Amino acid sequence: MFFSVIFGATFVYPGYEYGRLIGGLIVGIVGGIIWFLIVLAIFIWQIYDAYNLAKYYNSYVQRYRKAPW
């Protein structure tokens, strides 16, 4: 959430923060790209973690015939 606010604010208001429109736009675009990569990495990690938890759950249920939690 914190990164979204910081990079989103930089992306939406680039000219006000840095005084020059072109430099501000470049910073805003770079900030938007960094924000996108961070969100994408978190999304990929969530998919990986859900897959591993589902495998663990299924193997536990097959072995002990009850839910692990």
List the helices and strands and how they pair.
Layout: H1 2-12, H2 14-18, H3 21-64
Helix pairs in contact: 1-3
Cα radius of gyration in angstroms: 21 Å
The helicity comes to over 70%
Total strand segments:
0
Which ranges are low-confidence, i.e. pLDDT below 50, for 5 or more consecutive residues? Answer: none
Number of helical segments with 4 or more residues: 3
How would you characterize the overall build of this protein?
The protein has helices at 2-12, 14-18, 21-64. Helix 1 (2-12) packs antiparallel against helix 3. The mean pLDDT is 81. It is built from three helices and no strands. Helices cover 87% and strands 0% of the residues. It has one domain (2-64). It is rod-shaped. It is mainly alpha-helical.
In short:
This protein has 69 residues and is mainly α.
